[in-house]
Specification:
The protein is an alpha/beta fold. It has helices spanning 13-25, 35-54, 69-83, 99-110, 128-134, 157-167, 239-254, 256-276, 303-312, 332-338, 341-345, 358-375; strands spanning 61-66, 90-94, 114-118, 139-145, 171-175, 194-198, 209-214, 280-283, 293-298, 318-319, 347-351. α2 runs parallel beside α7 (239-254), α3 packs parallel to α4 and α9 packs across α12 (358-375). The longest helix has 21 residues, at 256-276. The two termini are 24 Å apart. Bound molecules: 4'-deoxy-4'-aminopyridoxal-5'-phosphate (PMP). 4'-deoxy-4'-aminopyridoxal-5'-phosphate (PMP) binds at residues 68-70, 98, 100, 145, 149, 175, 177-178, 198, 200, 209, 323. This is Cysteine desulfurase family protein.
Amino acid sequence: MYFDYAATTPPNDEVLKTFDTVNRDFWANPHALHRPGLRAEQLLEQARGQVLALLGAESGFRCIFTSGATESNNMAIRGTAYRFKKRGKHLITSAVEHPSVLTVFQSLESEGFDVTVLPVLGNGTVDPEELKNALRPDTTLVSLMHVNNEVGAINELPILGKVIKEGSDAVFHVDAAQSAGKLPIDLSKLQVDLLTFSAHKFYGLKGSGALLLPEKMVFKPLLYGGGQEFGLRSGTADPARAAAMAKALRLSLKNWEEDFAWVSKLRFQIQETLQKIPEVEINGSLDEGSPYIINCSVAGIKPETILQGLAEKKIYISTVSACSARQTAESFVVKAVTGDTKRAQHSIRISLASITAQDEVDGLCATLPELIETLR
Ligand code: PMP
């Protein structure tokens, strides 16, 4: 029983089929001028158009295919910061961003940029008022996540975008790794300039993602070479991965409402179970936030011990975040959300997917209270 879908999801069969077909039948270099190359290019461009359309970005945006959200975040933040550094060197982010955002800001800070790291509210979201007060005439970039990967908090993008655009000339970058495919995103209605995501979070393949950015925006790439992907990401593009990602996104968004309702029902069942266990506290919000992610702190027991106990029963959850290379230290996200070090040291994450079954949740809800009692 797998409850670690925020770390990754299994690739969907149809996605694998698309990947296989394109690899077999359209394997030519999409940048070559011969007929097989042009056919591969056609598929690549078709996938690009589909991704843009699925995110309301058909007009005024470009889609750059990348190796995933880590690369997209690096490219977006570094690219924008350097691009506008003559205008200003003030950048804004939040305390609960993914390490692929926070560490980029840390490195920019060491290069002389001035970075404001916003605190978050008790539900894990950024306070629009706090953001408004942090904006300055020399702010060139604000980078905030849509859904938090540890506690599931959902930032209100329409409100935050409005605050940024009304109060500054800053570019707004959003890390949507935990929301793309699960929540609708319509860039035509948001004041968001750049959007990051990874395909493997919505039943696509690992090693593929994208950065959406304004058509007119140019900046220095991370990778130099043949100038592919509008000069922003050199290297031979992969039509198979691109087509697989477009398909994964389309399939996920097709049923998003139904999936959201199903996962919400499971989430409430799990929360109810957790709330009945003494000295277990839910981190983040109980009823707002993404239903796909539940985080709680279990006093008195090391998270790794709970993980092991559950694993012995073939139930797999996670501590901190699998994305941070298996560290077992305290969760900086839970610390920022609760202000409580003990809670941050004792947090576990249970994450769901549309494919999570009722009997799996029943199994988890029967096992967890008993295990915690035994371990105590
Ligand atoms: N941002 C967020 C919010 C994430 O959850 C993740 C994946 N854990 C990433 C970025 C990085 O994605 P990837 O590992 O696919 O590059």
